[in-house]
Prior knowledge:
This protein is of the alpha/beta class. Helix content is 37%, strand content 16%. Strand 5 (176-183), helix 7 and strand 6 form a beta-alpha-beta unit. The model has no long low-confidence stretch (mean pLDDT 94).
Amino acid sequence: MEEQWVEQVVYQRPKSLSKVPTHYCPGCTHGLIHKLIGEVIDELGIRERTIAVAPVGCSVLLYNYFELDGAEAAHGRAPAMATGLKRVQPDKIVFTYQGDGDLASIGMAEIVWAATRGENITVFFINNAIYGMTGGQMAPTSLPGQVTRSSPMGRDVEMTGMPIRMAEMLAELPGASYVVRRSVHDIRTIKESKKAIRTAFRVQMAGAGFSLVEFLSSCPTNWGLTPYQSLDWIKQNMVPYYPLGDYKVADIVKDLK
């Protein structure tokens, strides 16, 4: 008797993601992080009341890729806009999605004060150690000795200082409830990233205060590497300086994980 095969759908695009191609470079992990966020939003059933705030940077067109209400903020000002949206619509779930140039440079004051005040918003911070959209210049997070468009001889820490570890710094602020660092360079770290996204949203849903998930992410184009080499570069170069882990998990959050 001839065996019959039945096709079965085992995965579908999250309903929270639009059916459009993105503008990201091949091998960039922005798309992967988008997918994880979209999956969690669907699983939590919060799509109809979620608002995404896009900044200036590689994720400037974020609102095109999510089937959510969205807003565009000026460079670095996404936390301020998210604060306003959440305060006037406290029943909404509001998140920002920001790169290192946006959050850790021009937007440094915005993120520090949002965390200090304990604003009940969720921040997804993409750290690829470089300015991506504007051509590959040195960012606040660029590693010591890292070659960029504006540091062709490598980052000189005597001149520019050491890279900023945002998760560690924000975790020290009393208003922050959940601050962690994850990565997306292999299957294990991708799974851990999705768990952190879920927890960060649940912190906001419980009214527990400010939450931030930092992701170590790749930028093959501006690093001058292949997509595969870029994932290895994260593991070999970024993880030692930016250790993965939980930097702040307030008591109120521990029961939400």
